[in-house]
Amino acid sequence: MKQDQSKKSDNIQQAKTSVSPVREDSKVAYKKRIGVYVCHCGGNISDYVDVEKVRQVVENEEGVFLAKTTMFACADSNQKEMVEDIVTQKLDGVVVASCSPKLHLLTFRAVTERAGLNKYNYVHANIREQVSWAHSDNKQGATEKAIRIVRSAIAKVRRSQALEPIKVEAVRTVAVIGAGVAGMKAAVKLAKSGVLVYLIEREFFVGGRVAQWDNLCISDETGKELITRLYDDILSHKNITLFTGAEVVEKSGSIGNFSLKVKITPRYIRMQCNKGELQKAIDVCPVEVPDKFNFNITKRKAIYHNYPGEYPQLPAIDIENCTRCGECEKVCSSIDFNQKPEYLDIRAGSILLATGFDPYEPKKGEFGYGEIDNVVTLPQFKRIVHYCNGDKLQFKGRNIHNIAYIYCVGSRQVNGENKYCSRYCCTSNIYTAIDAKKRFKDINNFHFNRGIRTYGKQEILYDESSRLGDIYLQSFEDNPPEVKVVDGKTVVSINDILTQDKKLEVEADLVVLVTGMVPRKDNSIGNLLKVPRGRDKFFNEIHMKLRPVETVIDGITIAGAGQGPKNIVESMTSALAAATKSFTIVASGELALEPTIAKVSKDDCEWCGKCDDACPYDAFTPKEIDGKTVAVVNKSVCKGCGMCLPVCPSNAIQLTGLSDDEVESMIDALMEN
Amino acid sequence: MSEHKKILEYDVLVIGGGIAGGECSLNLANLGFKVLLVEKDLTIGGKMIMLSKVFPTLDCSACITTPKVSEIARHPNITIFTGSEAVKVTKLAEHNFEAVVIKQPRYVNVEDCTGCQLCEEACPVSVSDQYQYGLVGRKAAYIPCSIASPRAAAIDIDNCTLCGACERVCPTNCIDFTQTEEEYLVKVKSVVVATGFNLFDPLKIPRYGYGKFKNVITSMQMERQLAPTRPYNTILRPGDGKMPDNIAYVLCTGSRDKSIGNPICSQVCCMYSIKQAQLLMGALPMADVTIYYLHIRAFGKGFNEFYAQARGMGVEFIKGKIGKITEKENGNLLLRYEDIEEGKVKEAEHDMVVLSVGLLANSEVSESFTNKELELDQFNFVQQTDMLANPSKTSIDGVFVAGTASAPMDIPDSILSGGAASAQTISYLKQVTEK
User: Fold this and answer.
1) Tens digit of each residue's pLDDT (9 = 90 or more) over B326-367
2) Which residue out of A76, A407, A466, A581 would a mutagenesis test of the B interface target, given it has the greatest number of B Cβ atoms within 10 Å?
3) How many distinct structural domains can be found in chain B?
4) Which domain holds residue B320?
5) Helices A76-88 and A101-114: crossing angle, nearest 10°?
6) Which domains does chain A have, with CATH numbers?
7) Strand partners, A37
8) Among A96, A305, B28, B239, which is 20 to 30 Å from B310 by CA?
């Protein structure tokens, strides 16, 4: 207490010389009618913390007017009771001791708001994650710790201030990054809902991975047809601006008002072009490189499109591989090597990230990949099946009859990094194997699997394949199949648990490695936007169930396989859900932001730039005020993280809602015996 | 039935107040659309509100559901009818639907009920509690469950003896036996079907002995035993109240089984069984848990890691199909199964068996659509007519599907599906304003 008083007198002295609003805050009268609610959380808390004892102890704290326990503080019935208490008992501050504020801070702030009490007079005490779950071995200690944490929350709420949210304009535009199916779908949905959309695609053509598939499972439509349909939707909507060959290279701003710099790589071909001439240009190009679109099983020219009728229907020149021989220019007047990269500045209220996945690339020698010439990946196999005409499946000029599929390559790794299941591969592979068997003569499918995961309705495919006579052989992860060349023939062997661990061998004309999905190798966009990734290195949502398409960066939503392996339906579903969230952010044109941000006393600030260096959000700028350079906080950018506070040499920064007085009082309460 | 139908108008009728219908309603309401949420049950929150913890994060399910439910319940743009059904839905034109909604009498004025439970104490009738999946009893005057919304009493009129005890003790006089069925005519611009799923009834597989052997329970009954609002406050086998120490899970009960007419995989049973196994190892540290499976479908984000974690904790996984379960005199159970790995038929004794029951379609609602057919797929789930490009689209323009009404799915997928349905509903509604 002594310390407290000296602090106060200190404040009064300083207040004489300064009129800083921060200092004034501490003079406000302390709360006297605080309501405290201690939650059982079913048994999550009360199994380890004596909640009744906590209640009894804190009831006598200064300023506490009522203290109650509750089975589920978050349940509607209790919320109603709290509202009633606040109104009838004229409570001036509220503390709920329950779970992590990550889960329910907003819930209880809303409760106080509904009762007409400013929501910043609510303080959350975490006695579940920080107490009951952490100290389940020591009930007495847990109860003591809970009491201290609740006391500390009470100390803070006694000093709390009514605050008003900061209103900022929200640009009614959404930037969708990635024009695969998820990005395209989200863009169309957003445009239809009435906002402007920038659809930004790094490649020269839209459609992402789905454009690379032909026949699609559980649909009569091909991947290309699906892309065509979405592309037509995009073109028909004036609200969508599509950029291809475009990459976001700079980002500033925050929710409601992001500024992005988009670099547009030239195609080196004029928009108004002569199609006949362009085809000639492709024909004369002497450069041949592996065609990534076909997963390198074919070659393409340096001037190229991925497939006839691709969108946009304008080829591009792959300048990295172009030798500038000039042959194309001779036959085509539309070629223009003078085109330069363009940079565009765009603004958006929200960013929807739909950057997709990379197929897993097996290591050289992994099940013979890259060493045995008839070992291919699932995406390559899909292209091979697509390009084969007639009734014979051929690869490298040889007829294919026996196909061995090795599952979980690059997924569910025992020693590798990818511990996860890639979700789509079992179904996708079985579908393609059935397709091959139906279209070509004498195909025998051998599935070397680790437990087939055709979940849900996809089960019927597994059933169909079994009825068609496909053979399934299974091993566990510690005993994978082997691929070897014996007398010039490729042989796959396995200890098959379905036949009592017998060693079985199949002479395969083609070995298909059923490869999974991996996060994009190039995470430059993720780094730029600071979107965190999970253990699996895919983008992470805030909460899988409560906020499944939002990220911790306010205003940035995620969709599609960039978040984790998904099939097309699942990608589409997440795209629509993300579009709804992004739309909700920008729809009203205005956002209410947290007022709990840094505040600089211009009298004390002697701009040294240290706050600027410490700030992870670039919220500080130097500004000349009354003939003196001081730091100014950008209110819509500051997150109130507090990184600037300890580095300020003149103690000129305070956090609104977390002033020194409040924090010190909390520490005192924690230490008090 | 009242003579005069009350006429109500909303933008969207959402049928089903589970997590998918709830998520969809919230999204719509947050954007200013007026929603009528019709729920057959006495509380919203669906199956999720009844669960213990949810995979793969082991979040407490109630902790996630109750705030959502509360948000839905108090949203000014959402009107909730519990104990109600949309019995007839007619499409008159685009953006013009008419639905007949029947609200069953609760015999309690919800506004006046304080949830004090005095009526429960006074009521002399005991019947099996459907919200605890028959593990314990409840009264004929009862609050559905402690986290129900609305948290108000209801009278189970089928079992009520009309003794009047509840009326006498009720401090707010909110019990009203004169209530009758109410019929509403609801005019809306769009409809969302989020009617969820039915659990497979294991009585249909007599060889597992469910209903005959008391220590054979369903996974939902185990879920209740593990939930924070659990009936016994510990894990007990129902036969004799003994704490089990050797529990078996029988996966694919009612899934992937043509003999009972459901060839597809239910998508969640592997994961919830693995989750329950982990929770059981926490609750009963000495207990052994064995999971009999065909294939473990741990396919979602973090699922395979969760499966590996269970194995690391010592949960035993046996690849094998259960042929038959018999009961011993002491209540233990003998499981006859094919151990696929060893290629032998074996027998194992467990003191409790949990049947991991599957998810079946709950598509009764399709019969309510009169002038246009709400098409179902071959498994009786609502047909997604443009699954790849418009996953919420059904055979009727303006009617969208959300959650497990269209296919088995887990909670994250249901919530995403609710979000997708709201997106498609919004763009359908926007067509009106464009006109």
Assistant:
1) 999 999 999 999 999 888 999 999 999 999 999 999 989 999
2) A76
3) 3
4) 200-359
5) 50
6) 2-164 (3.40.50), 173-265+343-356+520-587 (3.50.50.60), 275-340 (no CATH), 358-518 (3.50.50.60), 598-655 (3.30.70.20)
7) A68, A96
8) B239
